[in-house]
Specification:
It is a single chain. The protein contains nine helices and seven strands. It is of the alpha/beta class and 206 residues long. The protein has a single domain, classed as P-loop containing nucleotide triphosphate hydrolases (Rossmann fold, 3-Layer(aba) Sandwich). Strands 3-2-4-1-5-6-7 form a seven-stranded parallel beta sheet, sandwiched between helices. The protein is globular, with a radius of gyration of 16 Å. The protein starts with a strand and ends with a helix. Bound molecules: adenosine-5'-diphosphate (ADP) and magnesium ion. The site of magnesium ion (MG) has 4 residues, from helix 1.
Length: 206
């Protein structure tokens, strides 16, 4: 049975799709990986179409609605890791993806609206008795903001990962080629941050 990482957060634009694609592709050389896109906008399908033949293989699937549960069962039976990208609202599909998760990964940009929106996702994960973790994404260069937001999150008792992802253009340029930053620019800071995130996640559930 696969471990399932569901990337969820009811606010749009926090980096769910970016992180789901990057985590799946970065893991693909090491494990048998499936990437399941249940967002009806299916933006990962374009990324997957762009993915070069030479890149590490991963199974890509985009389904929504009544097909989600069956597809998740099929993928978990045949892979080591399933990464799910979910829609920017808590609907039935997102609930199913959270219910099926070994870990719910909640990207937040270091700003109050993102953190408030994460509270809903944390509550849902708790209601489904699922492990959840926040990751700071698009952290700007200024150390002050990072420190303030990290301190606030820690004081609030929310489960915050040590790994953080900076605001890096490399994510968009790798995405445009159907790649993860670890593939497009393996020696970049973005790639180092992604690998650190991946190891922390695997340590938690792996
Ligand atoms: N760490 C990052 N650094 C720079 N840009 C990022 C980062 N993460 C996401 N983005 C950009 O932010 C935008 C929204 O990201 P996306 O993954 O589509 O969010 P969501 O799926 O939560 O709506 C995209 O343009 C993406 O390239
Ligand atoms: Mg998205």
């Amino acid at each position: 049975m696969a471990i399932v990482i569901t990337v969820a957060q009811q606010k749009g634009g926090t980096g769910k799709t970016t992180l789901a694609a990057n985590l799946a592709a970065a893991l693909a050389p090491l494990r048998k990986v499936a990437l399941l896109d249940i967002d009806p906008q299916h933006s990962l399908a374009r990324w997957n179409e762009l993915r070069p033949q030479t890149a590490a293989k991963l199974t890509f699937s985009d389904v929504s609605g009544w097909r989600v549960t069956g597809e998740l069962e099929r993928l978990t039976a045949a892979h080591d890791v399933v990464v799910i990208d979910s829609p920017p609202q808590i609907d039935t599909d997102a609930r199913l993806a959270i219910r099926g998760a070994s870990l719910v990964l909640i990207p937040v940009q270091p700003s109050p609206p993102d953190i408030w929106a994460a509270e809903g996702t944390l509550r849902l994960a708790a209601a489904e008795k699922r492990k959840a973790a926040l990751v700071l994404n698009r952290v700007p260069f200024s150390g002050k903001l990072r420190e303030t937001m990290t301190a606030q999150l820690q004081q609030s008792g929310k489960p915050l990962l040590t790994a953080t992802i900076g605001n890096r253009t490399g994510f968009a340029s790798a995405f445009a080629e159907g790649l993860a930053v670890t593939e497009a620019a393996p020696r970049s800071i973005a790639a180092n941050e992604l690998r650190a995130l991946l190891s922390e996640l695997l340590e938690m559930i792996g």
